[in-house]
């Protein structure tokens, strides 16, 4: 089955990632051929408009607007999908698999929404579907979870998987800026889009969390299963309060195994400054993995950008091309464990709650009672200010999110409580 | 070719890693079967003495002292080698490959000394030889370099790949202790052996550096190619001096691409406290990778220990077992680039030099002249002390190691120089 016949690659999309893929296919041609065992040639690049400006010069005659025609062409062996979004990406990937082409994609939104359809098509047609670039850009995390940790039992994944929000929170931490000001700076520097919703409200991170949880726990988890909160409500006071307790605020994608169920969520959280994730600065990403035998691992690097994402795409391409050449395929989807996803209310976590209270005798006892009444035990209480401005800052021990939410609800209704000024979860700290 | 027939695994060695492998094969049997697609069964465990105490209970009748008999048994499909050292490990791996068994090994010393023989045997007999556990324990670094970055061009690898020396240097940094005192503490806590030579003199790190360089640069690099210096000469004053310039001292395995040649070395070096490797504490390991498209990546985790190493071994086992089941094999050795290894003298680096000098006019000029005469430009000079105790601390720009060594040699011969008290390389800093 082995041959030195060139392998022909179709690229769908020629934006910031696609143009880097095209560049690297050309510049690294010699190395790619040696690593695959056969030359890898660009068969065509599907784009929406032939005359749009691009970062790379695509060789004469290779641009086409007929994406379906390209992915089903007889001489095409492999397809790279870097268009993004649900359609037409899904139809094109399915058409490619059906036509017997293996596929490499960077499409997190599609995988998180409807990965099952794609994986089933890959299985049915006996082809590879690889997607290292879909989570945390250039950082190898899909392959380590699928393969390196395949003999171990992963118990938790904590990820900083969105560069925009990490840049904003890092800026708030280092400069004391508020959310709006930090967002504006991120936009000026190109780290945030004009409409930043997908990033700051956690949609992007939730898609990645679904993919990470699926891999880590060998179960199908979709974006709809992920409890999601963004960072637009995080205030300078929250960040300052985190700092008071030796912590920083990060937007985390959290995937946990609880008994035999899975909890998956994305929300801002306070983590200790000594935690390896705390020192992830600017727009960098990192994924922290805990497993039974390996212990604690962390993977760090650029989570986005044309060239880093293209590096991940081409790493997959080499594997898929080798498989194609020798007539085999890599491991497919692993969802045998079929674990239940817990509702957020049953997820076990800890809260940091800041409460403006009347400064009079018995206030602390009354607040403590509200926690006790819901079975939540308190780890620390810090009392700040005096007289008119008294504030209590409570950090709880672990409890279900429902218990904690009910406690906060009760606090809000108490006469001595003027305002619950901040509620944030606390992660990555030893109980 | 696919079947659900159980795969039989022979384990060579039942020490701290082997006993954890045996434990996990039993405890994770259900998950392993689901991930491989067929049950994975223990066929036998080869040990030196049947009656030695062990951390795991090996099922009745599976222990044997006949390792060669075990690896060549007809019913054995896969072999795990966790004996370590050169012989009998090499002969057993070769016998296994020759008998058509794929092999997973954690043996860094053997791979670094004579990997070529093993890889050629694997190629000849069409079998897999996997070795994730040989570098940095549980941290997935072999697979990312071999596969994830296969479409990219790695330019540098900086690794903290020995936990014992990192523990000692971290202790010296945090407590101000000298080398001897920190070593003693490491020995008491079980982080250093009674005879710590292999760790503190850099032999262990050099073996890993050779493997990392081979993978990163697709060339054969052996332990003998690696310039090696240990940490036994590092003083509390060196650590304090590093701290003065905002740096820490780490034992680094450094693999670099220079034009089309490879430079590989292990030595203590000062790195900026802001570098991601600087915050790697205690006995943890981390590998920092720079590549053309992906940029900067870091992989962090436990670099040794029975369970973490066993996790890496079993991850490889799942891949090798899947391959065996469908009658294929993974990528073999990639040494096509066949790059030259530069002698240490031609390696480009930077020096931090502390010099006790006579405190008189013209001293600085004379010292500067010694650097200039060898074509080494100075980045900073710090003058400390006065009168009898004057000291100059010079940090150079990049130059070849030969130029820098010749400069230090000249300084040592100068009348105004009382003593060159410390010479250490500086890495990970922007030029």
UniProtKB/TrEMBL annotation, chains A, B:
This is Homoserine dehydrogenase. Its EC number is 1.1.1.3. It comes from the Bacteria. Keywords: Amino-acid biosynthesis, Metal-binding, Methionine biosynthesis, NAD, NADP, Oxidoreductase, Sodium, Threonine biosynthesis. Catalyzes the conversion of L-aspartate-beta-semialdehyde (L-Asa) to L-homoserine (L-Hse), the third step in the biosynthesis of threonine and methionine from aspartate. GO terms for molecular function: homoserine dehydrogenase activity; metal ion binding; NADP binding. Belongs to the homoserine dehydrogenase family. NADP(+) binds at residues 12-19. Pfam families: ACT, Homoserine_dh, NAD_binding_3. It is an enzyme of class 1 (oxidoreductase). Its cofactor is a metal cation. It comes from Nocardioides agri. NADPH binds at residue 108. L-homoserine binds at residue 193. Pathway: Amino-acid biosynthesis; L-threonine biosynthesis; L-threonine from L-aspartate: step 3/5; Amino-acid biosynthesis; L-methionine biosynthesis via de novo pathway; L-homoserine from L-aspartate: step 3/3. Residues 352-425 form the ACT domain. The active site is at 208 (proton donor). It catalyses: L-homoserine + NAD(+) = L-aspartate 4-semialdehyde + NADH + H(+); L-homoserine + NADP(+) = L-aspartate 4-semialdehyde + NADPH + H(+).
């Amino acid at each position: 089955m082995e041959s030195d016949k060139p392998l022909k690659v179709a690229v769908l999309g020629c934006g910031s990632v696609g143009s880097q893929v095209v560049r690297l296919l050309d510049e690294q041609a010699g190395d790619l051929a040696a690593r695959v065992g056969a030359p890898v040639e660009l068969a065509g690049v599907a784009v929406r408009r032939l005359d749009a400006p691009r970062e790379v010069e695509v060789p004469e005659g290779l641009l086409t607007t007929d994406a379906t025609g390209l992915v089903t062409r007889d001489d095409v062996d492999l397809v790279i999908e870097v268009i993004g979004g649900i359609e037409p990406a899904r139809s094109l990937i399915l058409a490619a698999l059906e036509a017997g082409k293996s596929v490499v994609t960077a499409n997190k939104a599609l995988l998180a929404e409807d990965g099952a359809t794609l994986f089933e098509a890959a299985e049915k047609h006996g082809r590879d579907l690889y997607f290292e670039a879909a989570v945390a850009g250039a950082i190898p995390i899909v392959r380590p979870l699928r393969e390196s940790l395949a003999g171990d039992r992963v118990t938790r994944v904590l990820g900083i998987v969105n560069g925009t929000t990490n840049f904003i929170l890092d800026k708030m931490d280092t400069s004391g800026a508020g959310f709006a000001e930090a967002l504006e700076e991120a936009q000026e520097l190109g780290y945030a889009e004009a409409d930043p919703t997908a990033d700051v409200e956690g949609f992007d991170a939730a898609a990645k969390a679904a993919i990470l949880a699926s891999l880590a726990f060998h179960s199908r988890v979709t974006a709809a299963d992920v409890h999601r909160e963004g960072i637009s409500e995080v205030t300078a006071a929250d960040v300052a309060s985190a700092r008071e307790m030796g912590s920083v605020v990060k937007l985390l994608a959290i995937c946990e195994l609880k008994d035999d169920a899975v909890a998956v969520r994305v929300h801002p959280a306070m983590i200790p400054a000594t935690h390896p994730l705390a020192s992830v600065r600017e727009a960098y990403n990192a994924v922290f993995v805990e497993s039974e035998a390996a212990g604690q691992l962390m993977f760090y690097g650029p989570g986005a950008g044309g060239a880093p994402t293209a590096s991940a795409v081409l790493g997959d391409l080499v594997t898929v091309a080798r498989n194609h050449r020798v007539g085999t395929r890599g491991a497919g989807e692993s969802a045998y464990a079929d674990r239940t996803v817990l509702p957020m209310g049953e997820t076990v976590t800890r809260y940091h709650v800041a409460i403006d209270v009347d400064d009079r005798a018995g206030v602390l006892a009354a607040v403590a009672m509200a926690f006790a009444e819901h079975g939540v035990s308190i780890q620390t209480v810090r009392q700040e200010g005096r007289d008119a401005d008294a504030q209590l800052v409570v950090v709880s021990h672990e409890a279900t999110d429902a218990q904690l939410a009910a406690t906060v609800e009760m606090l809000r209704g108490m006469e001595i409580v003027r305002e619950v000024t901040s509620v944030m979860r606390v992660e990555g700290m030893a109980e």
